Amino acid sequence: AQSVTQPDIHITVSEGASLELRCNYSYGATPYLFWYVQSPGQGLQLLLKYFSGDTLVQGIKGFEAEFKRSQSSFNLRKPSVHWSDAAEYFCAVGAGPTGGGNKLTFGTGTQLKVEL
Amino acid sequence: NAGVTQTPKFQVLKTGQSMTLQCAQDMNHEYMSWYRQDPGMGLRLIHYSVGAGITDQGEVPNGYNVSRSTTEDFPLRLLSAAPSQTSVYFCASSRSGGGTGEQYFGPGTRLTVT
Question: What CA dihedral angle connects A37, A39, A42 and A47, to 10 degrees?
Answer without folding.
Answer: -20
